[in-house]
Amino acid sequence: MEKAQPRTLFDKVWDAHVVERLPDGTCVLYIDRHLVHEVTSPQAFEGLRMAGRRVRRPDATIAVADHNIATSDRRAGIKEEDSRIQVETLERNVAEFGVPYFPVLDPRQGIVHIIGPEQGISLPGFTIVCGDSHTSTHGALGALAFGIGTSEVEHVLATQTLLQRPAKNLLARVEGALPPGCTAKDIVLAIIAEIGTAGGTGYVIEYAGSTIRALDMAGRMTVCNMSIEAGARAGMIAPDATTFDYVRGKPFAPKGEALERAIEYWSTLPSDPGAQYDRVVEIDATRLVPMVTWGTSPEAGLPITGVVPDPAGEPDEAKRVQLARMLDYMGLTAGQKLTDLAVDVVFIGSCTNGRIEDIRAAADIARGRHVAPGVRALVVPGSGIVKQQAEAEGLDRVLIEAGFEWREAGCSMCLGMNPDKLTPGQRCASTSNRNFEGRQGPRGRTHLLSPAMAAAAAVTGHLADVRTLV
Amino acid sequence: MDKFTTLTGIAAPLPLANVDTDKIIPARFLKTIKRSGLGVHLFDTLRFDAEGRERPEFVLNQEPYRKAEILIAHENFGCGSSREHAPWALLDFGIRCVIAPDFADIFNNNCYKNGILPVRLPRAVCDQLMEDARLGGNARVTVDLARQVVVRPNGEEIGFEIDAFRKHSLLNGLDDIGQTLQHAPQIDGYEARQRQEKSWMPAIAVV
Ligand code: SF4
């Protein structure tokens, strides 16, 4: 028998889920977990209803409302009519189709990409999809997880499969110890600044190397979360002891002997020695400096020690025009020091940085300091469970005493879809993942950074180098 | 889904790279439970000022491009979120084909599911087509999917690539779910094997 080709982590998870290969190479790919939220699902359920179809695997599906809901007290219900209709539609649909659901007032409610791993719904080696591009987050467990559109949501609900073509493999190898003040967020912002927002298009990125191995699961999720910002549909990290320790004891994860059998299987998933990648990117973590974005694309990132770039230095005319447009939109002048930029709002939260570890990092900077005058600073836990945990550790008190707002779980100011929004012209230091024009509210200005850097901006009133505060 | 066979129409030049889905349709317009009616919000911040007045300099606010059925843009069109509201808004406005050097992955998929044809052509060709498009109403572009060619107003034909499966589905207006359900026995078989080989896999039930 021919010796099997060495395979990557992606290849192995892919191969294990191919139901059928069609003549042109398109595969019918089986989906293990389908996460559903209120914004991208109403038209999918409507499609099922019109075709007289049912949900094939309610026991592999979980629904939650996160994008639309307010992060203030929600016991009185949702005020904005269109948001309320969307959440009520989700509640009607899950009841009608028998889909498991975490209600808005359930402590397990939260951002879909926080609760999947937290509940043990997302597991290593799984194929996981959701009508949301940041589904890439779950790849931190060693799953193949990617975002899909609403037609595909309907396709998965009806068939538990997707029609897909395999992606190419990109290896991002990050080596060395992270310098003080640098975090997973700085790693991924540096990777995106290096390869660009289209650099990962057509690829699944596998993050590897000693720096990645040393990250906890929260950090790995932050890195995988932003794979889509590099154009890749998914990011993956090989499951290891850190992963297995994380999964152990999670409510929906296998237990006891079943878990041991699962771990035995998951241990076969890491890429084989000699596996081939279509592209390799090397990052030296020891040279990282805390990062911040200055423009309206996630690739517009720089070390906090940098200055606003000058469009005049760009040889390509179309790019020069685009750079000038970014500076204009962001209200910046070429050559300005990034640390001179005063902020109006600080947002700590989102599926990128809304986990307990992120809130601890922010609280560490906030402890014994105070939010600068005139700055509004929000801390929004990624789930009700994260909120409870933070409160058990007293982090809420640290933050409130320092002048931060302590909110209920949800997407909040990550996107302008619920009451937490920027007003035109406001400048925000944000731990979220997108700085597109209008992302956090019409004409709002977003600078992406880590939770510690965001807290540093809150207490100083401007973008700041967190290393000067620790 | 409507079939896509041949389209002859007005093409609008949008010489921007990295046109993200928040630009195509901002998040505040996603609070709908329907697919239709989003065309009025297409490119909202580019098309309208803060008071809701049209910006005359934006291409889709100009004649004859208000009736454009084809859009020509630069690299990485459709990057960002998975929102299918982006192709729904394009479709509702009347655009059935987008031509660009490349497309973000999820957006690209979402187009096919809605009968929109994303055509990948090199940057230099896109620039050429934009020049043609600037000639206005007399400069119609034809996109012939069966023959896989874009026909310039001067009659020159430019070939493009497309997956055989996607071409077949678009030409015939086929619904993916219907096609996949023809493989139901294989899906049943896969699930039976999975229950055996991965018997550790838990079911989700919320109590
Ligand atoms: S937190 Fe932001 S990026 Fe994450 S799911 Fe919510 S809106 Fe999307």
Task: Describe what you observe in this structure.
The complex is a heterodimer of chains A (470) and B (207). In chain A, the strands form five sheets. Chain A has a five-stranded parallel sheet. Chain A has a five-stranded parallel sheet with strand order 17-16-15-18-19. In chain A, α13 (356-366) packs parallel to α16. Chain A contains 16 helices and 19 strands. The model of chain A has no long low-confidence stretch (mean pLDDT 96). Chain A is an alpha/beta fold and 470 residues long. In chain A, β1 (18-21) and β2 (27-30) form a beta hairpin. The radius of gyration of chain A is 22 Å and the shape is globular. With 207 residues, chain B is of the alpha/beta class. Chain B has a single domain (6-173), classed as Aconitase, domain 4, CATH 3.20.19. Chain B has helices at residues 21-24, 44-47, 85-93, 105-113, 123-133, 164-172, 176-181, 184-197, and strands at 6-9, 11-14, 70-73, 97-100, 117-120, 141-144, 149-151, 157-159. In chain B, the strands form two sheets. Chain B has a four-stranded antiparallel sheet with strand order 1-6-7-8, with no helix packed on it. Chain B has a four-stranded parallel sheet with strand order 2-3-4-5. In chain B, a hairpin with a 4-residue loop joins β6 and β7. The relative contact order of chain B is 0.16. The mean pLDDT of chain B is 95. The chains are: A alpha/beta (470), B alpha/beta (207). At the A-B interface, α2, α3, β5, α5 and α10 of A face α4, α7 and α8 of B. Bound molecules: iron/sulfur cluster. Iron/sulfur cluster binds at residues 66-67, 111, 113, 132, 134, 350-351, 411, 414-415, 432-433 of chain A.
